[in-house]
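Blinded run. Sample ID left blank on purpose so nobody reads anything into the name before looking at the predicted structure. Input follows.
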Amino acid sequence: MFDVKRVCSALLSLRLVVVAMAVAVVLAKAHFIYLQAVDQYIFLLFDGLSFPEKGISFWPFLLQGQDVFNDQITALGMVSPDYFYWLEILLISLLASFLVIILPKLNLSTGLFLVFFILLTLVFTQLFMQMFKQQWLPFGVTIAFLFLAYLVMIFWLIPNKRIQQLSAELQVSKIRLAQLLTQQGQFEDAYKLLSTCSVDIDALDAIYDIALQQERKRQYHHAITSYKHIVKSKSRYKDAEKRLKALESIEHSDGSLSGTTDIAGTLVIPNQKVSKPILGRYEIDRELGRGAMGVVYLGHDPKISRTVAIKTLNYSQFDDVLLDELKGRFFREAEAAGRLSHPSIVTVYDVGEEPDLAFIAMDYAEGKPLSAFTKSSSLLSIEKVHAVILKVAEALEYAHQQNIVHRDIKPGNIIYNPGNGEVKVTDFGIAKIVDDSKTKTGSVMGSPLFMSPEQLMGKKVFGSTDVYSLGVTFYQLLSGNTPFDGDSIATLTYQIINAKPKSIKLFRSDIPASTARIINKSLQKDPEKRFASAGAMALALRRVIEKEYRREVVI
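Blinded prediction complete.
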């Protein structure tokens, strides 16, 4: 690319004067008689060395005319070889190139040493050819040019070296500031700062780090811009070109590099050459599932090498006027959920926010959601269902004591591990936020099949609503059916609020009568007629297990 600033700098530089001097010396050296003084001095030195009896006297020096001096040279039988004319032009050209190209790259002491060495070499070469070869190689013009041009360059080199030092210090400061901005997540500001730096390996390293972070933070368009800058400056720098091609190929194929995701989208990009995206400090490995809030991912915390499940809450589902309120409530409720510590409740480790979504990092519970065991072909044994519901009821009792109501108890929010019988309830406190926010926008959030009558009517809910939802879950796990169904939400809502639930005995006659009574009590329309608490329901379940299955339940 044509750099006008660099060209102007070269034109106004003393380096141009040196080049002009070289041209002038080559074309008009005969008109500069004082350039012959060097040759005459060297001749005096030769004459003194050849005839010691004469002695050497350099002062006072009387510059002879060129014709007189040439006659002296001829009288001694010395002649210049035919090639000297071209040799002199070559030497002056090489020295001019050395002065304007190589010398500025050297420090002052090294440059002075090399110039002095070249001067001595030319002087001794001329003396040697006179004394031992009887040839006249008048390097005096070349020597004078080198000396005078070096003096000119010194006036440019000294301030230029200082400017270069200040530029280098400024470059280092810019790179350090850009690295600090990168650590703070201000990638765009860091990139703008680095784009003003001259291209060197440190600047490219810093831009590459920015591109990687932009890639992992799903700022794919910005990452493409950063990689393009690197490739343009140095095409073979690390794997920048490969990463650029990978991102561009995905962008051209499906346009998925928007940097945001909707509820139907995913953060996972199926391309091994693209870095794994991150949310906060968590690396996204793969997608685990999808829920009403958004996508759930399997993630990894690299700081402590812990596997986590990351549930996302996508802001695009909500009206802009509610978004600020939603964020505040989300983080407050997530903080409350994070204080829960119970063996049957998934532990919340962290909560964070990205420009387009909020996320919760929680304990990754191995197993399957209970929704996998609600079909007639995959039902758990009656005894196992009792044990699972007992653990959930105990977990709910603990949460209610902490003033946290789940509001979305259903098989999909309960993880069951068939290998060890472990049960984990997920999404504490979060369903309440999403449900309330969605209700305000005129749509129903959550799972109407498992909602209590008061919840569907928009009334204030307490722990008894979780008892109702757990009763529906209990009903479905035992029978593969729900106590109410309908062709539409309106029909379903009417039945839950007004109709009597179908007896579970219609689906399974082998269910103990005591179990049916627990289900019926938990499904009462009036919250006051249900179990007084989830703990009371757990106590009733414990009695059934001990009586019907003759197994003592350890509290």
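Unblinding after everyone has recorded impressions. The chain has four domains: 4-157, 185-254, 278-363, 368-548.
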